[in-house]
Amino acid sequence: MTYPEQRRVFGMIPEFVRLGSLHRNTFVNSPLHLRPTLQWRRRSTLFFAGQMIGVEGYIESAATGLLAGINAARLVAEKEPIVPPPTTALGALLRYITDPERKRFQPMNVNFGLIPSLPAKVPGKAKKEMLARRALADMDAWIVDAMRRTETASCKPTTNPETALAR
Amino acid sequence: MENIVRIVGAGLAGSEAAYQLARRGVAVELFEMRPQRMTEAHSTGHFGELVCSNSLRSNSLTAPAGLLKEEMRRLDSLVIRTAEANRVPAGSALAVDRELFARSLTEAVEALDRVRILRREIQEIPDGIVILASGPLTSQALSRQLTSLLGEEHLYFYDAISPIVTVESIDAAVAFRASRYGRDGDDYLNLPMTGQEYDRFVDALLSAERVATRDFERFVPFEGCMPIEEMADRGRETLAFGPMRAVGLVDPRTGKQPYAVVQLRQENRERTLYNLVGC
Question: Which of A144, B17, B196, B215 could form a disulfide with A69 if both were Cys (CB 3.0 to 4.6 A apart)?
């Protein structure tokens, strides 16, 4: 709706200090272009992060910036870039948005549906608690492991960029 | 390898990346085009200016956003720490005073010795190690370069910003404080509607003049953030079952569930502003 029309329609509700609006949202087709480490498939020194990689939400944006920061620092130190395990919320989200098999890509929020399910069937609330507990345990282990891992970066793409882009 | 990382954009991602690099002893050049070059959604030059809701969503471990926050805490996230230092009450959600939050985040990044802040627009992706975090409102020049770099896979669509109202314009005799099923205490203000009032509201919505789509933007609404008039188009009751649903809420004046409600979320610490939930 236009601003005058918002004032008319919402007029029965209270006084507005900011009206609603729509804005442009630019985002990259990450499944085709990015590795889970957030490196561009065709140039490993170029990282993408934030809402423009097709994550939806403030926390998701900040979290991808966090990983891009970690990995850019690793590149400077000539260490291999890393990704948290898929059982963590961050690892699951990264794998979703950079899965080269994904066809019609749309931005994604973090959600439990992205995290691999538990080995055994567990009902509702208990399931979320177990997924969360596993995620945090795996994240803690990953942080310890990441401190140790010092193998040098090869700077070679893990997937052949031509095949990935041809899909 | 050159011992410096260039970051384009000091939003939530760029600011967090700068902090993570600095704490690992890496020198950073952080480029931000605001305030010299503003966007259609931002109004300050602050880092991490929040342009949609002021809520960073759930803080509960059994909610996905809450779990992600906890993972980030364990990775020493500057954004989460800054949000917690500037929070406003929002039940189990982490909501912030957006002005205080952005100002503290800016100050925290400015205080980092290894981070050099450059307030100018980047039109071409720099050489060396680069983090591109220029956001959904990436400038035209940079967008153009990205399009030629990435090809057809560079997409556009719209996002919605929720309106904000003043507290004194809310009729205290009608509005009531409550959260759905009492889950989040009384952090939300609810404006109840009868069936007739709801009907009049939907009529007004459907007859309202819409904003014309600019030709460089394709209109592809995202389900999580759809304009209210688009939802009303889908059926007269879509809103009553969607963002305006009254389930789990009881109007203390009638002792009953209203037909529909407009929920308002606290916007700032002073409790003078509220935003409409359901952006």
Answer: B17
